[in-house]
Amino acid sequence: MSKRILVLISGNGSNLQAIIDACADGTISAGHVSQVVSSSPGAYGLTRAEKAGIPTYVHDLYGTYYKGIPKEDKASRKQARESFNEDLASYILKPENRPDLIVCAGWMLILSANFLTPLADQNIPIINLHPALPGAFAGINAIERAYQAGQNGEITKAGVMIHKVIVQVDEGEPLVVKELDVRKDESLDQYTERVHALEHTAIVEGANKALETL
């Protein structure tokens, strides 16, 4: 039976599209995208999913959970963020939504233990795409940081990885690692384009590797 893949997104959804296309052409043969969940109501990835006939859901941190809470009120925002994570786990674990695999494909928010623990308890693996090599440039703006390090002569190799998601950000076990050479004669836009092309291949390979273990 085809495994259910739930994809978490926050933006354009080009990596989601790579997964959708791979399911359609048989490159991913053991699973299908059962639902797409976005942290942003304006994410173009929602349109990509709808065009493919895939159910969507918006779980909006800023427009719902942070609504009315000023940035200065860090304690209330922290509490709201934990509620966001708890509610997301509860939604995904509903019988009608429950997936076999969760893929973070451009999900731009940290998933805390309040989300990860309930999923782990149900043996639902979560993998993430990160545009850097293992141990390098964890967290946000990894593409820009890697590019600048390359231009400064600090690194000669960069790349992308697909890794298991754990509480420590971008530190889970790598499933797929793909390297690319740093070029000092290219712009940030050119480097970003090369990274994205590599991501589209890596995320399909990562999904297949994760599905093999189910």
UniProtKB/TrEMBL annotation:
Domain Formyl transferase N-terminal: 3-205
SUPFAM superfamilies: Formyltransferase
InterPro entries: Formyl_transf_N, Formyl_transf_N_sf, GART, GART_AS
GO biological process terms on file: 'de novo' IMP biosynthetic process
Protein origin, superkingdom: Eukaryota
Keyword Iron found: no
The enzyme's E.C. designation: 2.1.2.2
CDD domains documented for this protein: FMT_core_GART
GO CC, alphabetical: cytoplasm
Pathway membership: Purine metabolism; IMP biosynthesis via de novo pathway; N(2)-formyl-N(1)-(5-phospho-D-ribosyl)glycinamide from N(1)-(5-phospho-D-ribosyl)glycinamide (10-formyl THF route): step 1/1
GO molecular function: phosphoribosylglycinamide formyltransferase activity
Family recorded in the similarity comment: Belongs to the GART family.
Protein name (Swiss-Prot/TrEMBL): Phosphoribosylglycinamide formyltransferase
Source organism (scientific name): Trichomonascus ciferrii
